[in-house]
Amino acid sequence: MCGIFAYQGTKNSIPLLVDGLRTLEYRGYDSAGVVGVNSAGDVFSQKAIGKVSNLATKVEKHKTSSIYTTGIAHTRWATHGTVTEANTHPHTSENQRFYIVHNGIIENYKELKKSLSQKYHFYSDTDTEVVAKLIEDNYETDLKTTLEKVSLLLTWAYSLAVIDVEKPNMIVGIKLGSPLIVGKSSNGVFISSDVNALASVAGSYATLEDHEMVIIESWEYQVYMSGAMIRKDAQDMDIEYDVDELGAFSTYTEKEIHDIPSVLENVFQWRMNFSDMSLHNETLEELFEHDIDRIEIISSGSSYYAGMIGSYMIKDMAAIPVQVTISSEFLADIFLPDDKTLYVFLSQSWETADVRESLKIVQAKWCLTFWIVNVVGSTIARLTDMGLYSHAGVEVWVASTKNVIAQVGVLLMMAMSLWLKRNLQYSQARALIAELSELGSKIDEVLVQWPRIREIAKKYTKYQSMFVLGRNIFYPVSGEASLKCKELSYIHTESYSAGELKHGPLALVSPEFPCIVFNPEGKSYIKTVSNIKEIRAREGTVLGFVTKWEEQEDLYDDIIEIPKTSEIISVFTSLVASYLFALYLAEELDRDVDKPKNLAKSVTVE
Ligand code: F6R
Fold it and tell me: What is the mean pLDDT of residues 372-395?
């Protein structure tokens, strides 16, 4: 959350910074700001509420002929203080000498602000402004020693970039918890919150570790740790960050839903052999060298629901108990380590602070860890025992769709692999692999139904609240569908186990409070039909995501048809159908589906 971008070099920093922010905008789009300084120490500063494009318009309008060779910029996801220009970064010291951008949360900012308030005025409600005032208050000879001192006063997390207008050829960056990458090009040095924003401008890059400080001076940089210069090897820029063109689609969310069949090809490629119907994966094979009798999956948001879906697959096939824990709750709870448990960290971005912190707790007890992450080259690959990429490709905007499907695909392979090892069910596994070879075309059968799904979604825009229901493996499917509906459309949706409705929530059901029910053919079909009847008996409106609807047509007001397949395959197809439904619900209500309000793609604060 929040993106930092900085540049010191021979070129005018301002357009480079605004371009960098465009790539980082997924980290927050509440407001954006930029400050540049030229060799004479003159400052150029602009801030704008809302998207980076608003800042770009302002920058263009106030363009000057001066070359601001040093600059810092920020795109904000508000944590402390509402969305106003005053709360937009960069923030400044009282003497207007130091400018600062920050990603993270300074947890002790209130105490610090209280003591500084006697000496300084505060113009924002942010925790960041406190750091700017602290720098001024502690400044003695140079920014390096000042920041070393100031960093000891801060309760993390932070990544900071600071400029001193009296030393206009310098930027200092420091990090603890939040990410910071330094990139070098032939014309200068950059700092960024992620490597993707550096891909088109830097020839090499280095990822800073916690407590490291980078000092950029006259287009060169040095890295320090505890005051001493350290050797930091840079690696060649091997990342290509090409965001696909939208093509015929009007939003990235829509495009990414339609990318799902090809994403699944990537997920299974090299890991599943569709000609001899077998499964090959060295990492999964390696799992069997360990004595595992339990699995705990730790994740957040959509990744939590993907983990839940995977847990049903693993329990069902491999008969291994699986617990799925929301990462912030894992942190809030007591950790009782178990040396026969495999701890699986499931995250598309590997930026989610709660998941990262959970990993530290598990690793401190030397437990066996496994990662499933989408972002290739992520630090988690170096930190844990083993893992697999979900290979969903870049998900440009906030709502995760194709990545959730890829995560479920990876967990399914884990389940199958453990199943084969433990129960030697080769013929059943071959039958499932044969079905998976057809999965892309089954999903295509859902995607082509988009006009009908759009029509149905339009009908449901009139409701204020809806329940989303499912049983067994379709319970987490309903959770993920509900999350996507509320996140994109802002309609209040709430997921329940279909069997749980009668224990209280049924009181809310009425023709104006509909229920969306996932009930494709499978283990729980009959019992869920009974629950639907209970809703109908109370005149509740029902939208069914179903395969076997001909027999039960009178149960539903509306039907979204899922192809007839095995239950596992219909988990994937149901998710895809629900994504289309959520997308159209939102579009019909004129929402910005790529950038839903109040959200950001990576959640780097606890
Ligand atoms: C919702 C969504 C979020 C993320 C959550 C965890 O569409 O994408 O709920 O799933 O913020 O993020 P990762 O998976 O990066 O740890």
Answer: 82
Element (H, E) at 356: helix 353-364
Average pLDDT of 253-259? Answer: 96
* Residue 598 domain flag: no
Average of pLDDT values for 414-427? Answer: 83
Give me the pLDDT at residue 256, please. Answer: 96
Q: Structural domain of residue 521, as residue ranges?
A: 439-592
* pLDDT per residue as tens digits for the range 38-49: 999 999 999 999
The finding on whether 570 has its CB within 6 A of some atom of ligand 1 is: no
Give percent helix, percent strand, percent coil of the chain, each to the nearest 5: 40, 25, 35
Of the ranges 171-180, 266-275, 566-575, which is most confident? 566-575
Whole-number Å distance, alpha carbon 11 to ligand 1 midpoint, is: 37
CB-side neighbour CA atoms (13 Å) of 571: 30
Whether residue 289 is found in the same domain as residue 375: yes
Domain count, the chain: 3
Residue nearest to atom 16 of ligand 1 (CA): 347
601 is catalytic: yes
- Mark whether 426 and 320 lie in a shared domain: yes
CATH of residue 209's domain is: 3.60.20.10
Could you identify the atom of ligand 1 that is nearest to the CA of residue 399? 7
Q: Each residue of 428-478: pLDDT tens digit? A: 888 899 999 999 999 999 999 999 999 999 999 999 999 999 999 999 999
Q: Could you tell me the CATH number of the domain that includes residue 433?
A: 3.40.50.10490
Say how many Å lie between the CA of residue 600 and the centre of ligand 1: 9
Span from the CA of 533 to the centroid of ligand 1 (angstroms): 34
Q: Which residue among 417, 437, 457 closes a domain?
A: 437
Write out pLDDT tens, residues 322-358: 999 999 999 999 999 999 999 999 999 888 889 999 9
Q: Please tell me the distance between residue 159's alpha carbon and the centre of ligand 1 in angstroms.
A: 21
- 202 shares a domain with 65: yes
Choice among 47, 113, 175, 601 that is catalytic? 601
| Percentage, residues of the chain above pLDDT 70 | 99
The share of the chain scoring above pLDDT 90, in percent, equals 81
Strands (E) in 193-340, as ranges, are 204-207, 212-217, 220-225, 228-230, 235-236, 272-273, 278-279, 294-299, 322-326
Q: Is 603 in the pocket of ligand 1 (CB under 6 A)?
A: yes
Residue 602 lies in a domain: no
| Judgement on whether residues 230 and 279 belong to the same structural domain of the protein | no
Output the residue whose Cα is nearest ligand 1's atom 3: 301
Known active-site residue 61: no
CA angle 473, 475, 478 (to 5 degrees): 120
Task: Over range 299-317, report the average pLDDT.
Answer: 97
- Shortest-distance Cα residue to atom 8 of ligand 1: 400
Q: Is the CB of 400 under 6 A from ligand 1?
A: yes
> How far is C-alpha 99 from the chain's CA centre?
29
Mean of all residue pLDDT scores within the chain? 93
Residue type, 434: A
**537 Cα–ligand 1 center, Å:** 37
Alpha-carbon distance of 172 to 192, in angstroms, equals: 12
Domain boundary at 394, 421, 437, which? 437
Q: How far apart are the C-alpha atoms of 418 and 240, rounded to whole Å?
A: 35
What pTM was computed for the model? 0.89
241 inside domain: no
Query: What's the distance, CA 351 to chain centroid?
Result: 7
Pocket test for ligand 1, best of 352, 357, 389 (most atoms within 8 A of CB): 352
Closest ligand 1 atom to residue 355 Cα is: 16
